Amino acid sequence: MKIMEHRNLKESRLNNWVSFALRLGVAVSLALIVIGFIILLITSDANDIHPLASLDQIPAAIVISVGILILLLTPIIQVIAATVFFLIVRDRLFICISVAVFCFAAISLVLALI
Amino acid sequence: MLLWPITILNEVNFCALGSIGLVAGLLGSMLGVGGGLLIVPILTLALHLPIKVAIASSLVAIVANSCTAAGMYTKARLNNIKLGLLLETATTPGAIIGGFIAAVIAPSILSALLGFVLIYAAYTMLVRPYFMTEDTMSADDAITTGSISHNLSSSLASSYYDQNLDKAVNYKVNRLPAGLGVSFFSGVLSSLLGVGGGIINVPVMHLIMKVPMKAAIATSTFIITITAAAGALIYYYYRHIYLFIITPLTIGMVIGARIGVELTQRAGGLVLRRIFGALLLLIAVMMFLRTVNVI
Predict the structure, then answer these.
(1) Which one of A52, A62, A63, A86 makes the best mutation probe of the B interface by having the most chain B beta carbons within 10 Å?
(2) Cα–Cα distance between B224 and B229 in angstroms, integer?
(3) What pLDDT score was predicted for residue A87?
(4) Phi, psi of B219 (to 5 degrees)
(5) How far apart are CA B35 and CA B42, in angstroms?
(6) ipTM given for this complex
(7) C-alpha angle with apex A44: A42 to A45, nearest 5 degrees?
(8) What is the predicted pLDDT for the residue at B57?
(9) Using a CB-CB distance cutoff of 8 angstroms, which residues of chain A are in contact with residue B8?
(10) Which residues of A87-107 are buried (b: 16+ CB within 10 A; e: fewer)?
């Protein structure tokens, strides 16, 4: 019984860590995306924007880009949070599993940024 | 003021993209199918965007939506994070490979593949309308079904509190190799077509791995976050990500999903699922017609 309670307590802490990482990431990224979108609507002549055009010259694009980047990083951050948790509780099996997931995600991130 | 097809971004097209996200998020969360099934066909059929841009946009919107939902499910302790991480070791490389396959595949083939996936989704809505919403096994089945007895399986065992049953449901996870194999395929499909992958993840976890439906849906949402993100990053590598298409779409989808969660409590499920099934069938036909350049 004590083992089950201990396990539930550990799972509860893991859930709290991951949930916090997810909700914080989404809140920050969506706030930046909305702020960037508002800046765009206020400052730019939207009628001149081609949907598939390069947007480097538009200031709002920087804010939105950072928001989208944080959004795409949020799932990776939750994996890091889980990895740190498993390190603390010394669960070797799931340290390996979460590091493997992180490595796959890191490959896609590195590819995107090159 | 052009809307059909989209050639410039003006207030009307921003509203159109936001509305598409809103409707996709609303229906996706009400019906438990994810919004990607609607976003890609509508962006390609109605707004005439290139299908690879539509898929990339859909994946980013799905990340926003699934992160929001996964945060709620995780807080409620419905999802199985360990099982999710384990299956992500298959879905994430699948998503990367799917993104690379999509880059070299002809758009018409992607349209046809999406048509087949839409038909499958329509089938589940029309013929088995409650499949993705209710448990087909009792809570007792979930506890004791024949499990592979080793450390990994036992460490994946979990529990959640079921409000409807008013009791804790304990369950083990069965047939891990089969689950991992199909999850890889789910990752490929998710990235290849811009759908979340829930239409595969949930049946796999529920029917093959014997995870109770509520835990399967919650864990699937958790898996989709990183699967869709990995896929979106590959599309970014191929420069198919366009910020000002994604922005209104994502904002609309997150708002729609929030409203959908509230409406789900009151909606007449069966009729809604059948109507949506018929709609998906119609969209599938249109995708096939697009494949052969009829529309």
Answers:
(1) A52
(2) 8
(3) 93
(4) -70, -35
(5) 11
(6) 0.87
(7) 110
(8) 93
(9) 47-51
(10) eeeebeebbebbbbbbebbeb
- How far apart CA A82 and CA A45 sit, in angstroms, is 44
Task: Tell me which chain A residues have a C-beta less than 8 angstroms from the C-beta of B254.
Answer: 30
**How does B196-230 read in b/e, with b if 16+ C-beta sit within 10 Å?**
bbbbbbbbbbbeebbbbbbbbbbbbbbbbbbbbbb
SS3 B78: coil
Angle at which helices A59-89 and A92-113 cross, to 10°:
160
Residue B270: pLDDT above 80?
no
Return the H-helix or E-strand segment holding B230: helix B213-237
Give the gap in angstroms from C-alpha B156 to the nearest C-alpha of chain A: 10
- pLDDT tens per residue, range B28-87: 777 766 678 889 998 998 888 899 999 999 999 999 988 888 888 888 888 899 999 999
Gyration radius from chain B CA atoms: 19
For the stretch B100-135, pLDDT in tens is 999 999 999 999 999 999 998 888 888 876 665 555
Q: What is the pTM of this model?
A: 0.88
Question: What are the residue ranges spanned by the domains of chain B?
Answer: 11-291
pLDDT-derived band of residue B4, with 50, 70 and 90 as boundaries?
very low
Query: Where does the pLDDT of residue A52 fall: very low under 50, low under 70, confident under 90, or very high at 90 and above?
Result: low
Give CA–CA dist B207/B213, Å, rounded: 9
SS3 at position B210: coil
Is there a contact between B63 and A14 if contact means CB atoms under 8 Å apart? no
Cα three-residue angle B180-B186-B190, rounded to 5 degrees:
145
CA B67/CA B86 separation, integer angstroms: 18
Nearest CA in chain A to B219: A15
Name, in order, each residue with C-beta under 8 angstroms of A33's C-beta and a sequence gap of 6 or more: A64, A67, A68, A71, B247, B250, B251
The Cβ-side half-sphere exposure at B232, using a 13 Å CA radius, reads 31
